[in-house]
Amino acid sequence: MPQRKGKRKAAGGDEAEAVELPPEQNKQEAAPGRLEEAVREARRKAAPSVREFKFNKKRVRLVSRGSELKDDAKCILYWMCRDQRVQDNWAFLYAQRLALKQELPLHVCFCLVPKFLDATIRHYRFMLRGLQEVAKECAELNIPFHVLLGYAKDVLPAFVLRHGVGGLVTDFCPLRVPQQWVEDVRERLPEDVPFAQVDAHNIVPCWVTSPKQEYSAWTIRNKIHSQLPEFLTEFPPVIQHPYPPSTPAEPVAWEACDSSLQVDRSVKEVAWATPGTAAGLAVLQSFIAERLQSFGSHRNDPNKAALSNLSPWFHFGQVSTQRAILEVRKHHRKYKESVDIFVEEAVVRRELAENFCYYNKNYDSVQGAYSWAQTTLQLHAKDKRPFLYKLKELEQANTHDPLWNAAQLQMVREGKMHGFLRMYWAKKILEWTRSPEEALQFAIYLNDRYELDGRDPNGYVGCLWSICGIHDHGWTERAVFGKIRYMNYAGCKRKFDVGQFERRYGPHKRHK
Ligand SMILES: Cc1cc2nc3c(=O)[nH]c(=O)nc-3n(C[C@H](O)[C@H](O)[C@H](O)COP(=O)(O)OP(=O)(O)OC[C@H]3O[C@@H](n4cnc5c(N)ncnc54)[C@H](O)[C@@H]3O)c2cc1C
């Protein structure tokens, strides 16, 4: 962004019914905030505030036509969308930097839409509870936090006028709907209000990593790794804001927020995952202390507690992946293999998914697949399916396969299916439905409805990888799958104790 006309240098151009997890996975919540304290100290060491910090402007791009901050600006506004945290958030930091340089108050707002894709009350409550923590932290920092009920295009421009907002900053999500929100606001914003977007979710900003859709992890890996030294830096702190708002924020009516939602309330919250940044950092701390050592060796065993479990907090932006990587990397000497694989998953695979959704407008349909994959699926479209299930049968875990049923029930009850089983689960949906299009539709619907981390680029890419071979290569041809990689029950049995998983999550547990 911009400069205030003839004045100081500024922006962009410048610088319920809850389900328990088994005890060994619940331990994560017990850990006190040791990591939080260490992280606070690391931020303080990076810089006293973002004003003194060398902000990497490649993280920022201008959305509006104009870039000049007007002279009579009354405040700067951060429109928080995807990255729902205060600290470790490049978009928040960028907005504070602008406000500090202009000596203006800083406001933060969140536009609460009544529904979003297939999200249910499970997801909304996780998000709202996280936002309550954001609101509290903002109040402590002298930064008013506002929840605006409705779509940004309907509520944000009026807010901008009412508060004399001189510059608007938002974060970045490559998905269609949030991209449209940004475009709608851009169209309706007064011309003299510069509007900048900051990629606060990826370590290497999505538009910096590559200007095009990457073919696979192989083609993007080096593009990411070669830029990590530049982007994988410590964060400065968001500080108590020295320029007070002319009017304080109205306290948020959280109950009214909840009742404004038009979502399915039958999918209950889960007990194992406490929403919010503090709880997310406790999960990170417990991952490092208890599970990181076996991540490399046991991450593909759904009976073992070896995963980070961080995806819900990453998805809602309550924990920054960059923070997780900074902390996990400190243990490289001790757990080299685990740390390297974690970086591969949480940076390379995750940012590959962002790249795919950003550059491929068909990221959630078979048309988004490579032509070899579309051709092979088409050639096998009429193959006889061994079983055919309707959506309800799948949703209720009523298939002939006890492992698939157990995985489905794990997702329904706990809001998080084990990563290895997600691949098996989606591939079986391809095998048991009438067409790849139907398989993809069912998989995305179930994933987005039940997974806490659903409605995420990782989810669309996970479903397209499993069903349409995205980022994969062709395998030996077989019925239904064609050249798409195949997985079966016998293969799972070779990898882990399938019976143990089925006993733990199988349908008999329903009546408990
Ligand atoms: C069919 C299918 C659906 C999926 N749906 C989702 C989804 O909706 N949301 C989601 O975040 N992930 C999804 N994934 C990717 C992956 O399974 C989850 O990210 C992972 O299981 C989350 O658990 P964790 O945080 O304990 O992972 P860990 O194994 O501890 O990994 C750490 C982080 O790395 C990233 N990561 C791990 N595996 C992948 C991957 N294959 N692709 C991209 N990033 C990855 C995630 O951000 C994850 O939180 C899906 C995968 C498949 C095959």
TrEMBL record:
Taxonomic lineage from the root: Eukaryota, Metazoa, Chordata, Craniata, Vertebrata
Protein family: Belongs to the DNA photolyase class-2 family.
Gene Ontology BP annotations: photoreactive repair; UV protection
Parts of the chain that traverse the membrane: none
Catalyzed reaction equations: cyclobutadipyrimidine (in DNA) = 2 pyrimidine residues (in DNA)
Keyword terms of this UniProt record: Chromophore, DNA damage, DNA repair, DNA-binding, FAD, Flavoprotein, Lyase
Protein species of origin: Nothoprocta perdicaria
GO molecular function, one term: deoxyribodipyrimidine photo-lyase activity
Disordered: region residues: 1-43
All residue ranges annotated as the Photolyase/cryptochrome alpha/beta domain in the record: 74-206
Role summary: Involved in repair of UV radiation-induced DNA damage. Catalyzes the light-dependent monomerization (300-600 nm) of cyclobutyl pyrimidine dimers (in cis-syn configuration), which are formed between adjacent bases on the same DNA strand upon exposure to ultraviolet radiation.
InterPro entries named among the record's database cross-references: Crypto/Photolyase_FAD-like_sf, Crypto/Photolyase_N_sf, DNA_photolyase_2, DNA_photolyase_2_CS, DNA_photolyase_N, Photolyase_Class-2, Rossmann-like_a/b/a_fold
Swiss-Prot/TrEMBL cofactor(s): FAD
EC numbers for this chain: 4.1.99.3
Annotated protein name in UniProt: Deoxyribodipyrimidine photo-lyase
